[in-house]
Amino acid sequence: MTNPATTHETLIAETDTSQPFPKAIVSWGIVAAFFIAYIFSFIDRMIIGLLVESIKEDLVLTDTQIGLLQGLAFAIFYTVAGIPIGRLIDRAPRMKIVALGIAVWSIMTAICAGVSNFWQFFVARMGVGVGEAVLSPAAYSVISDSFPKNKIGLPMGVYGLGSAIGAGLAFMLGAVVVAAVSNAGQTSLPILGEVKAWQIAFLVAGIPGLLVALMFLFLPEPKRRFTAAEAETKEPVPLSKVVDHMQENRVFFWSLFVGVGAVNLSVLGSISWLPAMLMRTFEMEMVHAGWFAGAMLIIGGLIGLIGGGALMDRIGGGTPAVRLKFCGWSALIGSIGALIFPITGSIPLLAVSFVLFFSAAAVAVGAAPSTIQQLAPNRMRATISAAYVFAVNAIGLGLGPTLTAWIGDTFFPFESGIRYAIVIVAVSGYLIGALLFYVAAKSLKTKKL
Question: If you placed Cys at 22, which of 26, 253, 255, 277 could pair as Cys (CB 3.0 to 4.6 Å)?
Answer without folding.
Answer: 26
